[in-house]
Amino acid sequence: MIHRLTRRGLLRGTAAAGSAALLGSVTGTRLWAQEPEKPAELIVRAWGGSWVEALKAGVSDPFTKATGIAVRHDLTEDNEIQPKVWAAVAQGRVPPIHINWDTTTNATKSALRGVTEDLSGLPNLAATTDLAKPVGLDGYPIVNTYGYVYVLAYRPEVFPDGPPKSWEVLLEPRFKGRIALYNDGIGFHFPAQVAGGGSLEDIPGNMQPAWDFIAKVKEQQPLLGEDPDFTAWFQNGEIDLACTISTNAREARKNGVDIAWTVPEEGCKFDTDGLWIPKGLPENELYWAKQYINFAITPEAQQVWLDGLGLPGVVPGLTPPADLANDPSYPTKPEDFEHLIRVSAQVQVENESDWFAKFKEIMQG
Question: Averaged over 52-70, what is the pLDDT?
Fold first, then answer.
């Protein structure tokens, strides 16, 4: 259940890609025959900054153009929207959003709670890779839409001899106050386990090596934040190193900042995000929410959406952005996964809140 990724099923048959239903294509609304009444809008929870801009360009705007249905992006953080959705479903109320763009781990919590709609009937799933399927769950309570790597981002100007080879670089005195992590430590727990002298096989039973290493990093006075913060910190020259999703460093690079990223010898966490629909929507709104997700896994939508994020999708044949060809943060071949760490969603669901709490306890201590 916990391993370095060395392989995955990248294709589910090219024949399926050619014959898959194109429901959700933006070639015209005529593809939605016998369609139910359209709602005035769909509300999609999203992350801010470059994340929502990419979703808007690749999925939401084309969907609106094809259907006439406006898409409103709710930028409430995923952990904040979760209890609101759970409460609405439990109380039989209409949920506050139609679609949640969520981490697979958070989405798995909702799926196990029984608040997600089954999406296994979406026609375009037939043409996706195995990465689209949530591991350990029946059916498709979530549709994974892409993968991503929590890389070590750095300023090349402070590493003239080449990228840092180990996460231990975070402990160098010259970087005190010049490093950044997510405020709950997400993405950092597993490489910290290895950097602290532990093994991946000990997760989750013995995470003490990770906590010991994180305690050392705490003495470096790291900045703690969320996705938009990393881009801003790099742009403002406030940090030299960060454990972050490559999208954030890439956005800073687009804005003229000299930034690069690497996968150190201890490895980096690989994970997925997905889309899901909460139970309790009116039937017509549920129908159109499903069409939004069905469109989000077409080659047309994925190519634009994920070009904006710089992340590998779940549809075969996507063209990597030119600046990410052969990049360690954009795995497409089995060998690309040799130094990437993936922990099952079930293990993360069972332990993540404790890991987050332990991280925050160390940082606040």
Answer: 98
